[in-house]
Design a protein that fits this description.
20 helices, two-stranded antiparallel ribbon, three-stranded mixed β-sheet, 5% strand, mainly alpha, elongated
Amino acid sequence: MALSSRARGALKLLALVVLLAGGVLGLRAAGLGGLFTAEGAGRLVELLRQSWWAPLAFVALYVVATALDFSGAVLTLAGGAVFGFVWGAVLNTIGANLGASAAFWVTRRLGREGLQAFLGARLGALDRVSAEQGFAWLLRLRLIPVVPFNLLNIAAGLTAMPWRTFAAATAIGILPATLIYTYFADALLSAGVSHEEALAKIARLSVALVALVLASLVPTIARRLGWLPLAFVLLVPRAAGAQAIPDHAAFTAILRDYVREGRVDYAALRRDSARLRAYLDKLAATDSGVLAAAPPATRLAFWINAYNACMLERVIGRYPIRSVRRIPGAFTAKHCRVAGAARSQDDIEHGIIRPMGEPRIHFVVNCAARSCPALATEAYAPEGLDAQLDAAVQRFVDNPRQFRLELAPRPTLWVNRVLDWYGGDFGGPAGVKRFFFRYLLAYSAAEVLRPDVRIEYFDYDWTLNDTAADHP
């Protein structure tokens, strides 16, 4: 009888627990478990000294201990004490990285399926974050080790984070602390007892302590100076064919050629579809890790453009049509490959863009309907994104078919129904009125905040936003 996916996942989770527990008990039964404690550190140092095979044994011990959830701090200090700073740093780095990857793969093979079976769709949000932003958050947690090293290995293995992202963030993130701890141990245990050597020891320990403090500040400094994206671009291995984030000049050229006052000349765009396809190919080849590590404005501009470009392709692939709703799964089918994964319009809008917390996106993503806020004639660019978003809201406010304030016979604010569907992104009806306050002239701004002004919504016209006068 075939096992259900839930039962199979439960068995794998059980196997993971048994493996970890069995490994720990096995090491303790062999008398090795105590070596990884502060009390056993001295014994470990003595075992490794004066043995030709010590480097190989040390790396093997580090890998096994890390994979079985023993603390690596004692081993790192022991490496510095036994092998000195240079060789200790090399062996510690090799052992820590191999051990982290071993723990990652053991957890991925045995734990991941079980977690999916029990959490189901609830795991999707965590998977999106780990796939899109995994490098950045893992690097920060490695640089500032507030979360245990081994726990991060297991947690990453349970998510959808690619191994190459995990390995790169680990290799970069653990390096400062590894060097500092190794230097600390070497400085503490290698100096003699003469006056000059004692002073040298104090100086080296002071350097190590200062370096440790500075290392804790690296993520904050890097985030302010924008070094994290640069480090990712330079140091993270990319998948074959992957590329950095493209500029959006090609999409701007397409929009200027085929968009007229918010309407699209789909017939002409279909004849010239190679240009749109070439731009989408660049979006598809964009390295998801590089994108995840980019500044927020860069990521937001990228995904807004991706949504609009994918929507255009969706329409011309079925053109001529009267409405985008005539396309089966228009918003739910994973028809467009972006940043290495097939995505639907809903995936991009609701899974990526809206969680960024910027309500103005509702005035720039275009669903190819006449009632949808107008498609701009230029792509969105990181360097001017804030001004572009404000301009889109202002166009919306200035269009009486999208926004109209009536004070008689009953005070009413008429707005696009999008603000009904996604009003929660603005804080509800009162939040919608507060949002528009700064986009209105002084008199209207004061009136819109009146408590007796109710909000009503225009009927939504799903007719295709086509420049053609006739439709089939």
